Amino acid sequence: MQAIIQACEPQPRGRKRTLQDDVDALQKENSKLRHEISRLQAVVRAAQRSIGLPSAAPPAKSKTGGKRPRKRSRTPRAQRVVAALRKPEADVEENSQIPCHESGDGSQ
Length: 108
What we know:
With 108 residues, the chain is mostly helical. 56% of the residues lie in helices and 0% in strands. The chain is elongated, with a radius of gyration of 39 Å.
């Protein structure tokens, strides 16, 4: 009997809203609002530049979190080449001193 009564009741028109539909709608609204925020921030920056205000400093990065870039170490081969190139350079500088004239008048 219950089935006959339910069959006679009017059915709601259109699509039924599910939780996933609500989540999708909220995500879409979120992306629209983020886009609008970006646009308004650009407008504010342009207005600040036009009236001559200094731009705001970017937020400081926290030193506690995140990965730090690795320091690049020199290779031993490169260090040997640099040392070999610098050694003759020092010898050349000692021998290449040009004697200058003792008189300070600048004539030759």
